[in-house]
Amino acid sequence: MIRGISTKWMLGVLLSLALPLMGFAWYARDQVTAPRADEVVRFHLLGTAADLSNRLYAELVQGQEDAKVLASVPVIGWFAANSNGKDRGTFLQHVEGVLNGMVKTSGIYSRIFVLGTDGSVIAWNTSTKEGRRLTQDQVEEAESF
Fold this sequence. Notes:
Blueprint: H1 5-72, H2 74-81, H3 88-106, E1 113-115, E2 121-124, H4 136-143
Antiparallel strand pairs: 1-2
């Protein structure tokens, strides 16, 4: 076994220093750090939720502003108000052009609809934000609204 007094002395000093440090490390990990980990996670989740809600609110406000802009275009307002007018067919391409331009420039929307006074869909964009024409399935889906 251990025979030298200096070896025994070194082991005694090492154990007297190592055991309290190991005990303190265990206490700090289990009693201090673990409860704080939940608080840290909760804090970060609340921060992330607040950031996402602010971003969602900003997008909703932007959507409302875009709808106001489109509603203020005289041709679209006239087109929506005169759902039984015989001149609507001549203005349909112009209205679709305005809607296509809004889809292309915004980069947010994929579909924009114009509703008549009775709430039915009377016009919609005919191209995607990349400028491609909508497929027949997409047009039929828009017509079914």
